[in-house]
Every structure is written in C-alpha cells, then in structure tokens.
Amino acid sequence: MTPITPPAPVSFIGMGVMGAAMAANIRKAGFALTVSSRSKAKAEPLLAAGAEWAPSAQDAADGAACVCLCVPDTPDVEAVLFGDEGVVHGAAPGTVVIDFSTIAASASADFARRMAERGVILLDSPVSGGPQGAIDGTLTCMVGGADAGFSAARQVLDAVGKTITLLGPAGSGQICKSANQLIIVAAMQAAAEALTMGRKAGLDPARMRQALLGGSARSFVLENHAKRMLDRAFKPGFRAELMRKDIRLALGAVRDNAVFAPSTALAAQMMEALVNSGRGGDDCASLGALVAELSGLKD
C-alpha cells in the first residue's frame, strides 16, 4: 500500500477531549484535516484553525486516505462505521480506518472483517496517556490489524503517539488496552489500601508515599494517582464511569480467553462500587476516597 503522508486528506470523527487533541496534532503534522462530531461546537477551534467540517461520518470518509475515530463505546463505533451515514458508505477501497476508541476486542475483530469485505482496512488502536498525552502527541498506541494498513498509516499514528506497537491481528490492540486498564486499577486499589492503612496506623500518608517512591513500589500509579488520592484532586482526568466501562471490557476479555483472573474480578467490583457510590463523574483516583470511607475514615 502507498504510505499516507502529508498533505494527504485525513478525517477525524469524535471531538471529545481526546479526539480533538489528536485531530489537532494530525493537522499540525501537515495532513489536510476534516472533522466530524455530533456537536459541531466542539470542533470550532479546529475549524477556526483551518480544518474542514463534514456533517456525517459518510461525508468525512468520502475522499479521505485515512479516517480516524475516537468515540465512547462499542455501539458508538458500530454506528459510526456501519450506520445509515456511516464510514462504510463513504470510504473507497484502500482507505485505512483507525479506531482510537476503547471497545470490546471481539467487536473490533468483527468490524475489521466487515470493513475488509468493502476493501477497507480497519486498525484498532486504543491509546493510553490521558488528555495531556493527547495534547502533547505522546500517547501509547496499541494497534491490532493488518500490517499493510499499519505501515501505510504509520505517519498518522506518529502524529498522535510516541510508543506505537503493532500487536497482532484485529482486536489485539483492544486486548492490550484491557491489560493496561487492569494493571492500573489493580495498582490503584493496592495504593488506596496501603495509604489508608498508613493513615489508620497514625502515619503521615504523604511522607509514606515519598518513602515508597524511593523503593521497589515506585510506579506511575504511586507517582500520579496516589498523589491525587492524597490531595483529593478528583476533577477528571479520566472519569470513573469510563474506567468502569474499560474494566467491564477487561472482564469480558479474560472470560473469553478462559483466564483465571481474580484481580480482574476485584477491579470490576471496585469500579462498580465506585460509580454506584456517586463518584462516576469524578476521576478514577477517587477510588482512594471510597477505600478510606469503607475503612471508617472521615475526610
């Protein structure tokens, strides 16, 4: 396949916090950008910067060498790809579609098969790195799909990410993202329990965290999420309700692959409890407040 290089036309569907930032970096890389979203207002900064507007996913795909999307969940991806005005109706054979959403791995594989029937290559590329990583263009892209599509779209991926890995066939990126989220939530749960234990034993949890950062327990979660737990800085960030969705996907993945996964089961239950406690709109680090509350601490 011919590499997709600037100023080739690239469309981006979904102007949420992550999508808008990734689209901005694709434009900065020199691609001719078209954007589409349910809310045109969210696209206004990009339109003011020179991007074109497409009223539907079909229109966005028409004439694009690459179509990117970042939307909340599996049904949203299916609607964008295969709905009445979906990508499949506008994309020409040879188009590469990159789905940056986090959805079910089995669905990603099925969507790729259905797109391939039209001659379109679908890559699943869920990302890690959060809103700041999206702004900085330093996301980790976990990619599943055909090598030919991955190679062709490499410069598009390079515009949004720093660590970009092709992991295997369609759906592989979603499996890796489920692993990523599982590890984060399991580590957050451990950090929340450890800091709560320190508080109840009379330790200064901030000093305790500093001590732990000097040893083998040092981690991204201890550096970042645990600090938010201590500061009660729960403005998202990454909302707890979205992490619950991701852990539900991880629970499905371990089930589908017959994995003995007690950590996943606990992570899923804790995310359900966190959202059901009224913290669904808070950052997922509010797990620390829930563990403290269940331990009898009053903040």
From TrEMBL:
Presence of the UniProt keyword Ribonucleoprotein in the record: no
InterPro entries the UniProt entry points to: 6-PGluconate_DH-like_C_sf, 6PGD_dom2, 6PGDH_NADP-bd, HIBADH-like_NADP-bd, HIBADH-related, NAD(P)-bd_dom_sf
Limits of the 3-hydroxyisobutyrate dehydrogenase-like NAD-binding domain: 171-286
Keyword annotations: NAD, Oxidoreductase, Signal
Annotated signal sequence range: 1-23
Boundaries of every 6-phosphogluconate dehydrogenase NADP-binding domain copy: 10-168
Gene3D superfamilies: N-(1-d-carboxylethyl)-l-norvaline Dehydrogenase, domain 2, NAD(P)-binding Rossmann-like Domain
SUPFAM superfamilies in UniProt: 6-phosphogluconate dehydrogenase C-terminal domain-like, NAD(P)-binding Rossmann-fold domains
Entry protein name: NAD(P)-dependent oxidoreductase
